Amino acid sequence: MELEEIRLKIREKYLETDRNSGPLFLLAVLMEEVGEVAEAVRKGERDGIREELSDVLFMVISLSNLFEVDIEKRLVEKYIKGDPSTQWDLP
Question: Quick one: which of 23, 35, 47, 56 is 20 to 30 A from 41 by CA?
Fold first, then answer.
């Protein structure tokens, strides 16, 4: 299943709930899920990492649906066709 298809299915199933919840609530849940990923990484819990990353991706997709952002197109433009790694401050 392509990312765009997943996004549309999530939109169909959850957009009304997301609209009712509002962007700040969705952002708060995203931040909570990112914290849970960090905890799973810190503990080295592979199953937890898998679970929490799926929650983070779901929240990112929910926000992209709420704000009508074509996230798949932007990912391809920025990271596949482009290469922002040249601007990263890495050793």
Answer: 23
